[in-house]
């Protein structure tokens, strides 16, 4: 890419644009800089986000702000225990034309948008959660034997309450794997919380501006895919993922305490993620630092601890730190 002046110029322009987007979102969502960056990396990579945190930390506002700033058609679904799959993807209804002839007509559900906010996704039953699987993976849905394509781009930004809360259902492993990243949303720092109080309780509330269009976002995603990844970064990704699997790891902690490790989709996410992150940091190529920065949000929902780990108080964070140390010192 360095030998192609036009590509370099396009990449530099995209970096400036993403910096503008980051600032615009930061002006609405205070104290969540890491969360905003990881979400932008995911969207630029064409993936879906799972935001985990307690209610009231600005997850819903983040999604609404991104919809406006990125020029995307945004819809919101509040997941509840009685929500049915047809409530999300749509259904066929029996219709009658002017001549009295009856036929089935497909009525689109809220999934037919560009940015779908699945609010409190783990409040719904596993059957309803699974209704999103095909949409997230194939960008289309199947109803009564017919396929219906979703608008492009299509991103799901789901929020999830901590599993310890009452009335929650754990997401199936197959669906968790479809999420590009699991982003942990923490309480803001004192200064950020002060900003929140001053900006949201007065007579005027700041509204975000649109920076790009949906078509420009699609072009940006295409450009990001063309960024070359160096051999050292590729090797770091392979080492990180394969060391996280008990079958191929030479780390004692992983062999003893991990029930299953990350699959190839984790490697694919890291490859796409490091490309997008280097754009956000105004670089022309990814580095091992990008792999290290994205390791935790990309791996933690794709690994599971066994009973022995829980009994001994071993956390997934500690194991991921060991994996990061392995590639940092390689």
Automatic annotation (TrEMBL):
Residues 45-189 form the AAA+ ATPase domain. Transmembrane segments: none annotated. InterPro entries: AAA+_ATPase, ATPase_AAA-3, CbbQ/NirQ/NorQ/GpvN, ChlI/MoxR_AAA_lid, P-loop_NTPase. The keyword Ribonucleoprotein does not apply. Coiled coil: none annotated. SMART domains: AAA (SM00382). Keywords: ATP-binding, Nucleotide-binding. GO terms for molecular function: ATP binding; ATP hydrolysis activity. Belongs to the MoxR family. This is Putative ATPase (MoxR-like).
């Amino acid at each position: 890419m360095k030998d192609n002046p036009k590509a370099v110029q396009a990449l530099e322009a995209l970096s400036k644009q993403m910096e503008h987007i980051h600032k615009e979102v930061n002006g609405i969502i205070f104290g969540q800089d890491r969360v905003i960056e990881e979400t932008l990396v995911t969207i630029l990579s064409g993936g879906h986000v799972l935001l985990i945190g307690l209610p009231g930390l600005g997850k819903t506002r983040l999604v609404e702000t991104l919809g406006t700033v990125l020029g995307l058609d945004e819809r919101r679904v509040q997941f509840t225990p009685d929500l049915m799959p047809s409530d999300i993807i749509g259904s066929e209804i029996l219709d009658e034309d002017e001549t009295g002839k009856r036929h089935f007509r497909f009525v689109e559900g809220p999934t037919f948008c560009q940015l779908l906010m699945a609010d409190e996704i783990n409040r719904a039953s596993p059957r309803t959660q699974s209704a999103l699987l095909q949409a997230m993976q194939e960008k289309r849905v199947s109803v009564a034997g017919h396929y219906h394509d979703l608008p492009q781009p299509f991103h799901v930004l789901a929020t999830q309450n901590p599993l310890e809360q009452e009335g929650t259902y754990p997401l199936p492993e197959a669906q968790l794997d479809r999420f590009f990243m699991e982003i942990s949303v923490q309480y803001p720092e004192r200064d950020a919380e002060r900003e929140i109080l001053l900006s949201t309780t007065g007579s005027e509330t700041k509204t975000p501006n649109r920076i790009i269009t949906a078509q420009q976002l699609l072009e940006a995603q295409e450009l990001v895919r063309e960024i070359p990844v160096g051999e050292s970064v590729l090797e770091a990704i392979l080492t990180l993922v394969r060391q996280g699997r008990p079958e191929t790891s030479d780390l004692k902690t992983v062999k003893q305490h991990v029930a299953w490790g990350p699959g190839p989709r984790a490697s694919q996410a890291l490859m796409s993620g490091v490309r997008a992150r280097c754009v956000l940091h105004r670089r022309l190529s990814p580095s091992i630092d990008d792999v290290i920065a994205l390791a935790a949000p990309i791996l933690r929902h794709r690994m599971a601890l066994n009973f022995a780990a829980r009994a001994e108080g071993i956390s997934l964070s500690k194991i991921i730190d060991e994996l990061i140390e392995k590639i940092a010192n390689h």
